[in-house]
Amino acid sequence: MAEQLFNTEQAKERVILVALENQKNSASFAYTIEEFKNLAAANNLNVVDVLTQKYDRPNASTYFGKGKVTELKELVAAREAELVISNDDLTATQIRNLKKKIGGGTRVVDRTALILDIFASRAKSKLAKLQIRLAQKQYQLPRLHTALANELDQQGGAGGGSFTSRGSGETKLELNRRTIEDQITQIKAELKTLLSASTVQRSQRDHSGLKTVALVGYTNAGKSTWMNRMIEKYSESKEDIDDKKVFEKDMLFATLDATVRAIRLPNKRRFLLSDTVGFVSNLPHNLIASFQSTLDEAVHADLLVQIVDVSDPHYRDMMATTKSTLAAIGAEQIPMVTVFNKADKAGVTYPERSGEDLIASALDDNSLDAFIKLLDEKLFADFKTVELMIPFDQGAVVNQILNGNNVLEQDFTAQGTRLRVELPAAQIETYQAFVQK
Ligand SMILES: Nc1nc2c(ncn2[C@@H]2O[C@H](COP(=O)(O)OP(=O)(O)OP(=O)(O)O)[C@@H](O)[C@H]2O)c(=O)[nH]1
Ligand SMILES: [Mg+2]
């Protein structure tokens, strides 16, 4: 095959990961390292070694303590590493000092830069590209006088490059605080213009009365796959199903946009389903802030469906990550059910309900049936079927009800429009005057 003519392994940059084990991450340190390795792999890096130290707080000038820095220098030479990435954020001082101590032109970056880089290489839509550029600039600002800041800046407007793809050929911009602050202001203005359109869309939806369900969870858990299964089978509009589907792939951060689709269940009940960006532990604050509009789909949902890859040995840590990320974006109060996904790979029985949760596989039809049953129960628990008689001079009320509710029957009688409709308890109160006993 053509791809095998080149050994891409050789072209990958050789990287050493460094991390501190402290009281906070000690219990799940194996997961921390595993996740760190996965992030590096997602950025097409070749992890040649991992060096750790038990240390509660990073050394202010060199991250590791003195002896460990010497050890790192020797390891870099022995492994011919071109890049060192730290698990914690580094200050400009730490980057500069570490580079000097390691020597040999080895570059030093941190985990946040790594994540920003992955996002930059995955971003496809204009919104995602702008959001990631904003996060990059904000990250760059306090680290102005490091080589990294210059490298990041060379990515320019496209947002497609990365600190690992050297020599992009673009001219280096003169970097100063003012330049970056101006760039941030400009990106924010562009974002505002772009978002005003989508915010209008959301407020229209908010008034449509339809419930919204958001798929959330750790990256690569299978959210987009569930989204596509639902679209294939229950999309409200049956046209151009393939265009409605979202990108699903076995890689971290395949999804960087929010997608919302109208779903219609076999019992005619309708709701909106959204798919959005996946989580990873300690998502950089800048990134969360920049992606707020994308994450808002989850923040404004009536129900969250947490998708968990139960076949991953670290799935409990991943659930904890989802929990803390939801708290960080302000979505921790929203009712949530959990789908323990990829059960087909985990050697457990499925589909199986366990209270409000579901053990399932997105690849299995019976699981899809159990999935919609769960959503149906959770979303429409307080719904009742009522019969309303609305006089002809109250056309606005009829339109209000037709918009977004599940109307089972509609006919016109001498007294007015008769509707048999499913309504939530609160709305039945509103239309009490029209309810037929
Ligand atoms: N075996 C198995 N594979 C699954 C299942 N669900 C999803 N996958 C696979 O898992 C990989 C990731 O799926 P996605 O749906 O892209 O995951 P995601 O949660 O949207 O990931 P991000 O968008 O990156 O956060 C894909 O290769 C899917 O085919 C499942 O139930 N069983
Ligand atoms: Mg996805």
TrEMBL record:
Cite the entry's keywords alphabetically.
Coiled coil, Cytoplasm, GTP-binding, Magnesium, Metal-binding, Nucleotide-binding
Ranges for domain Hflx-type G come to 211-383
Which residues bind GTP per the record? 217-224, 253-257, 275-278, 341-344, 361-363
Localisation per UniProt entry: Cytoplasm
The coenzyme or cofactor needed here is:
Mg(2+)
Give the coiled coil ranges. 170-197
Against Pfam families, the record matches this protein to: GTP-bdg_M, GTP-bdg_N, MMR_HSR1
Q: What GO MF terms are annotated?
A: GTP binding; GTPase activity; metal ion binding; ribosome binding
Q: Which GO terms describe its cellular component?
A: cytoplasm
Which residues does the annotation say bind Mg(2+)?
Answer: 224, 255
What coarse category fits the chief subcellular location reported for this protein?
cytoplasm
Q: How does it assemble?
A: Monomer. Associates with the 50S ribosomal subunit.
* Protein family per UniProt: Belongs to the TRAFAC class OBG-HflX-like GTPase superfamily. HflX GTPase family.
- PANTHER family, sorted: GTP-BINDING PROTEIN HFLX (PTHR10229), GTPASE HFLX (PTHR10229:SF4)
State the protein's purpose. Answer: GTPase that associates with the 50S ribosomal subunit and may have a role during protein synthesis or ribosome biogenesis.
**Protein name listed in UniProt:** GTPase HflX
In the UniProt record, the gene name given for this protein reads hflX
